[in-house]
């Protein structure tokens, strides 16, 4: 082998390296033996690309685990105190992690570009650097000056945070070995690349291999590593989903970039529950924890406004009160338009269909717009009734009672179906001063007896709308036709 020319040697190594070709989905990371236009695993289009499997696993010497002491141990004999978690000092972040960072854990923070991942992690870095420096912040995206300026904006001097602008993972790991940090931040995993692999940074193979190396390093050094990952729309850069099964914790940062509300959602957590959601507001000075999200979401609500209903949705384990707005307007198009902002479009179509067909509301000539305030996304069927109330209120120009909260899934027959964890939602509503609620009649009676809130249990959407709208103070100057429609709502269709 030693006598072979460099070119022959290269071919030999290359053949050894890439002996098998598969097709890899850049969305979910699944592999297939042949190309298809649509990924059979996740259903994404045009995401399969040819990928030569690096034969790292095929070298003569089997790869060994980093940890050598791998004798079986009785569970009961393992000390639970041996892994103290590090608390970040940012309460909402700790809440989602399930009480701080576990030593040697790898956390993936995913989200759309520009949503605030780097901002949050710089704040986290500052919090940890204050308690236990040094924290190493590796960025393949921004220059030292950019990050320094951001730190300035966040009001942190940056003491104890060591910035490394580097994309070569071998160099990064060398520096990490030397620096012995307490926490490592990699922003982002898609900019890291290993020189041992073909293909540029961001390819599925590179992203996976770099993540694997960081995971190995984290486990052997017992230092927690936080990775950021952009959600990508095109297939040429691997999305964070290809890493979800490898890392210990996956957090998603969500929110409408045009509004300041940000949700940090745990979707996987090997050390705690994924039921927690952290709420932040993006301000000039960075992300600020929101301790009373419902109050913030409802702060701009006008009393007695037409086309506005409040629902109580569950974000993880936490109930949030959100305002759903509806607007109907005579259409100028041959077919009326339906627009949903923050609600699932199919559910909006279903609610509109039920209102037209079961209640006889004349929506066929109206454009219908539904908006969830604060850029929040409400995917729960429990919000159906709120949507129906907001639309009907706008159509009839009648306001919904200002301190009413509406809960219920609407069935195609116009029936109201129960919603899970109703008590929790009502307790939160009562705490925020809501004194009336409309709930589905088949909810458990002990679940809906909440002090301070008068609950009306109804079995169908017609009754619910009659109650929700008639309890309100009616704006003056209602037309005769609206009176008729109101009567129509009350009687049979
Ligand atoms: P960033 O953390 O860079 O997003 P990501 O890393 O997810 O791509 O945040 C980008 C946005 O946040 C940018 O539009 C500016 C805004 N921002 C603030 O509003 N306030 C701040 O203090 C900072 C640092 C950023
Ligand atoms: Mg960033």
Architecture overview:
The structure is a single chain. The protein has 493 residues and is α/β, with parallel strands linked by helices. The protein folds into three domains: 38 residues; 207 residues, P-loop containing nucleotide triphosphate hydrolases (Rossmann fold, 3-Layer(aba) Sandwich), CATH 3.40.50.300; 195 residues, Ribosomal Protein S5, domain 2, CATH 3.30.230.10. Strands 6-5-7-8-4-9-10-11-12 form a nine-stranded mixed sheet, sandwiched between helices. α8 packs across α9 and α9 crosses α12. The longest helix is centred in the middle third of the chain and has 18 residues. It is globular. The site of thymidine-5'-diphosphate (TYD) has 15 residues, from α3 and α4.
Mean pLDDT across the residues is 85
Roughly what fraction of the amino acids lie in strands? 15-25%
Task: Report the principal-axis shape.
Answer: globular
Helix-residue proportion: 25-40%
Task: Compose a concise summary of this entry.
This protein has 493 residues and is α/β, with parallel strands linked by helices.
Characteristics:
21 strands; 4-stranded mixed beta sheet; Ribosomal Protein S5, domain 2; Rossmann fold; alpha/beta; 493 residues; binds magnesium ion; binds thymidine-5'-diphosphate; 9-stranded mixed beta sheet; single chain
Q: How do the helices and strands line up, and which of them pair or pack?
A:
Layout: H1 6-17, E1 20-25, E2 31-32, E3 48-53, H2 91-97, E4 106-111, H3 117-131, E5 135-139, H4 144-153, E6 161-165, H5 169-179, E7 183-187, H6 204-221, E8 225-230, E9 249-254, E10 261-269, E11 277-283, E12 286-289, H7 293-298, E13 308-315, E14 318-330, E15 338-341, H8 345-359, E16 366-372, H9 384-396, E17 404-406, E18 409-410, E19 416-417, H10 422-431, E20 436-440, H11 445-448, E21 454-458, H12 461-470, H13 480-490
Parallel strand pairs: 4-8, 4-9, 5-6, 5-7, 7-8, 15-16, 17-20, 20-21
Antiparallel strand pairs: 1-2, 1-3, 9-10, 10-11, 11-12, 13-14, 14-16, 18-19
């Amino acid at each position: 082998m030693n006598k072979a020319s460099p070119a022959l040697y290269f071919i030999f190594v290359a053949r050894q390296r890439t002996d098998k070709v598969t097709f890899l989905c850049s969305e979910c990371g699944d592999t297939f033996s042949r190309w298809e236009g649509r990924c059979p695993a996740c259903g994404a289009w045009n995401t399969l690309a040819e990928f030569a499997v690096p034969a790292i696993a095929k070298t003569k010497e089997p790869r060994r685990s980093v940890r050598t002491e791998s004798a079986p141990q009785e569970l009961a004999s393992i000390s639970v105190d041996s892994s103290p978690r590090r608390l970040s000092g940012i309460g909402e972040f700790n809440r989602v992690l399930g009480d701080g960072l576990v030593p040697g854990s790898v956390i993936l923070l995913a989200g759309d570009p520009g949503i605030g991942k780097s901002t949050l992690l710089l704040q986290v870095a500052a919090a940890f650097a204050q308690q236990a420096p040094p924290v190493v912040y590796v960025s393949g995206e921004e220059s030292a000056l950019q990050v320094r300026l951001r730190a300035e904006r966040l009001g942190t001097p940056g003491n104890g945070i060591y910035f490394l602008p580097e994309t070569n993972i071998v160099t990064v790991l060398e520096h990490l070995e030397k620096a012995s940090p307490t926490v490592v931040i990699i922003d982002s995993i898609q900019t890291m690349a290993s020189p041992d692999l073909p293909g540029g940074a961001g390819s599925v193979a590179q992203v996976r291999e770099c993540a694997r190396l960081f995971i190995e390093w984290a486990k052997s050094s017992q230092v927690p590593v936080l990775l950021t990952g952009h959600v990508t729309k095109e297939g040429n850069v691997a999305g964070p989903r290809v890493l979800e099964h490898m890392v210990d914790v996956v957090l998603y940062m969500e929110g409408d970039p045009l509004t300041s509300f940000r949700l940090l959602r745990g979707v996987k957590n090997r050390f705690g529950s994924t039921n927690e959601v952290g709420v932040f507001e993006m301000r000039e000075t960075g992300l600020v924890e929101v301790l009373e999200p419902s109050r913030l979401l409802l702060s701009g609500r006008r009393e007695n406004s037409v086309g506005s209903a409040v629902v109580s949705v569950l974000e993880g384990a936490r109930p949030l009160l959100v305002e759903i707005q509806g607007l109907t307007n005579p259409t100028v198009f041959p077919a009326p338009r339906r627009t949903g902002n923050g609600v699932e479009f199919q559910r909006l179509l279903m609610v509109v269909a039920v209102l037209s067909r079961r209640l006889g509301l004349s929506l066929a000539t109206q454009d219908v717009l539904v908006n969830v305030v604060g850029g929040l996304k409400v995917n729960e069927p429990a919000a159906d009734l709120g949507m129906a109330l907001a639309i009907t209120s706008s159509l009839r120009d009648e306001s919904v009672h200002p301190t009413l909260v509406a809960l219920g899934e609407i069935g195609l027959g116009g029936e109201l179906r129960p919603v899970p964890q109703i008590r929790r939602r009502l307790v939160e509503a009562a705490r925020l001063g809501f004194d009336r609620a409309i709930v589905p009649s088949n909810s458990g009676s002990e679940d809906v007896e909440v002090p301070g809130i008068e609950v009306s249990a109804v079995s169908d959407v017609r009754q619910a709308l009659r109650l929700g709208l008639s309890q309100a103070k009616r704006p003056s100057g209602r037309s005769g036709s609206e009176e008729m429609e109101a009567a129509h709502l009350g009687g049979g269709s």
